[in-house]
Amino acid sequence: MAKLQRWNEAVLRVAVAVPVYRLFDYLVPEQFERSNIKPGVRLEVPFGKAKKIAVLVECVQHSDVELDKLKRAERILDEEPLLSAKDLELLHWAGRYYHHPLGEVFSAAFPVMLRQGKSAVIQAEKRYALTDSGKAIDSELLKRTPKQKSVLEKFQAHQSSLSEAELSAWNDNWKSSVKQLIDKRLLQLAESGSRANFALGAAEAIIRNNALECNPQQQAAIDAVCDSLGRFGVFLLEGVTGSGKTEVYMQVIRTVLERGQQVLVLLPEITLTPQLEQRFMQRFTVSIAVSHSKLTDRQRACAWLQMQRGECAILLGTRSALFTPLQNPGLIILDEEHDSSFKQQEGFRFSARDVAVVRGKLLNIPVLLGSATPALESLHNVDNKRYRLLHLPERAGNATAPALQLLDIRNKRMQEGLSEALIGEMRLTLAKNEQVLLFLNRRGFAPTLICHGCGWVARCRRCDANLVIHYDEGMLRCHHCGQEQRLIRQCPSCKIGELTPLGLGTERVEKVLAELFADKVIVRLDRDSTQRKGSLENYLQQINQGSVNIILGTQMLAKGHHFPNVTLVAILDVDSGLFSIDFHAPEKLAQMIVQVSGRAGRAEKPGRVIMQTRQPEHPLLMTLIRQDYRSFAKIALAERKEAALPPFSYQALLRVQATNAEMPKLFLHAVVELANEHSKGHTQILGPVAAPMARRAGLYRYQLLFQSGKRPELHALLDVLMPLIEKLKQAKKVRWSLDVDPVDLY
Ligand code: ADP
Ligand code: ZN
Ligand code: ZN
């Protein structure tokens, strides 16, 4: 290490978004008052041959680099820090806990535009609102101009002004219609104050008078959280779908707003439906910011800054919104806390749930986690008294819970995945003019194209995976790397055999449904059918208006949506979830079943759930049917304890890939050697083994699992190991990443 030096000049220690485990030192820019520079500001620094945007982490008095080798920062971008001291503390913690380079952690906290060094002063967007005639008019009068009609209806449903961001999130083509509606004097530019600008400390009239009267369990939950405002505490609100969790959130939020504080609401990526936003808009008059991946960079930066400056009271966002700075934080809510989209699956692999809890602790505010099917980790934390359980055992209002039923399909005749018995049930339901929902978690036409003559299978050239048939587009596509080619008609191997699709995808089921139920309206909801912006919302609207009879879809259906007129739900292929090698699989399957079931019978009509299976005696399925999710969770946790698996032990997975087939293994052997040198013997080092998908996108993949019964020991080892791994000579020839608390082992 170079000699420690002391100067009169301050040294700026900054985080730069590069994948190395260190910070970088710079001198204060020429002609700059050092006393003015506070941690949390962005600056531009020379870095190699380029310039990069960095974040000031601390000002120090010395550097290990010699004075004449230190470069000067080019300029300071912000007068005031964008991140508070607590925000910085949280990022430091996250960098340490996930053993991830601090520069990348810091970068993840900012929206893209600010990362790029754009100004933190962003023009607020225009808002539009209905005029009095716009409020009064029947939208049917606009039926000749359907685009204008749908924009008008959007405004009428919201009963308040909408920003450009909100409109764009809903539909790309709103601009001309809004202009025409303004010309017709049905819409107007809203004055900036039309949605109560959230002046902190002076929150009056923040709520419209449409709160529901709560049942005793809801009230108990609300009281428990409200009593804890101003203090740290984690609450797990467990309630079946439809039990009124959202109502609890809204009533707690109201109290937080009355205290003049802000609320951060985190949702899984797919659940972030306009439905929840709309409910919040209808309930609260304060400004609500929204942040998710469908918005533009500008919109996301705007939401971030509005929360940072305290101009918005509520932020509805997905995982990445977790780090949004808050002027006056009061509460963090995480809805569907079990959802795996809260875990980032690349780069900085943080769990938004776990970091939210740490953030709540740092800020000294409560954290409210909600789910119908809590993660086993969270239930374990309740057992440990780390989280407090709030239970909503029944559905709110008049809705009754759906009845679950197994349908044994062994030796039964099937039509593209539908048994005769199921088809019969569907007919009965449809005859009553009620909706049917079919769940199949595989998109495309069929997962495999095989030659009936010679057994040739269409494989991805770059992955250990089959190509999926997308019949409508006439394509074969790899769902792992995106590689695609035209659907072929002739077997490339034997040239004569017949090519046959093997297995089921949503597209294939859709085709047979169209034949079996020719007079019914069928909607398919999956990633392919909802790619266009606004299309998912359109489908949901059609479903809610009752113009759809059968809804068919993937996991997109399992989350958050209300389908009040659905009374029959069928899970077409429950067995495919029963035999995974990942120990998380039973938990995920049970959650999926309960979540999908929750879509049925939400209004007055009771619902039924049918699961087609060839494993009618399977213990997991039996427990769910005869008892409930909680009983399943109890058994599953006991099994995890027996096997010393998380949450009874702690894991970190080191994943490696390279174009060279041998390199990942060689690298991991070197890591094992290092680990054995530094391990105190309490951490198991399992592997290296080939990844379950040994080749993906042309890269060979290996992995190494660290597991320990004691979290501090695992982390102590990783603390020593990670900086050393970075310096291994093989490290330059592979891509590697560490996943702390992995949620899937692939
Ligand atoms: P969850 O978020 O648990 O799925 P919601 O809060 O969305 O449940 O409530 C489900 C339905 O029940 C909604 O239509 C809601 O308006 C209604 N609801 C909630 N709480 C009550 C209540 N106390 N009385 C009557 N209806 C209620
Ligand atoms: Zn062939
Ligand atoms: Zn591929």
UniProtKB/TrEMBL annotation:
Keyword Plastid found: no
Binding site for Zn(2+) 2: C460, C463, C478, C481
Domain Helicase ATP-binding: 226-392
Top EC category: isomerase
Residues bound to Zn(2+) 1: C451, C454, C491, C494
Catalytic activity: Couples ATP hydrolysis with the unwinding of duplex DNA by translocating in the 3'-5' direction; ATP + H2O = ADP + phosphate + H(+)
Spans through the membrane: none
A Pfam match: Zn_ribbon_PriA
PROSITE patterns from the UniProt entry: HELICASE_ATP_BIND_1 (PS51192), HELICASE_CTER (PS51194)
Domain Helicase C-terminal, first and last residues per copy: 483-643
Keywords tagged on the record: ATP-binding, DNA replication, DNA-binding, Helicase, Hydrolase, Isomerase, Metal-binding, Nucleotide-binding, Primosome, Zinc
EC number in record: 5.6.2.4
Cofactor remark: Binds 2 zinc ions per subunit.
InterPro entries: DEAD/DEAH_box_helicase_dom (IPR011545), Helicase_ATP-bd (IPR014001), Helicase_C-like (IPR001650), P-loop_NTPase (IPR027417), PriA (IPR005259), PriA_3primeBD (IPR041222), PriA_3primeBD_sf (IPR042115), PriA_C (IPR041236)
Keyword Hydrolase attached: yes
Required cofactor names: Zn(2+)
HAMAP family from the UniProt entry: PriA
The family this protein is said to belong to: Belongs to the helicase family. PriA subfamily.
Quaternary organization: Component of the replication restart primosome.
Function: Initiates the restart of stalled replication forks, which reloads the replicative helicase on sites other than the origin of replication. Recognizes and binds to abandoned replication forks and remodels them to uncover a helicase loading site. Promotes assembly of the primosome at these replication forks.
The protein, known as: Replication restart protein PriA
Organism in which the protein naturally occurs: Candidatus Methylobacter oryzae
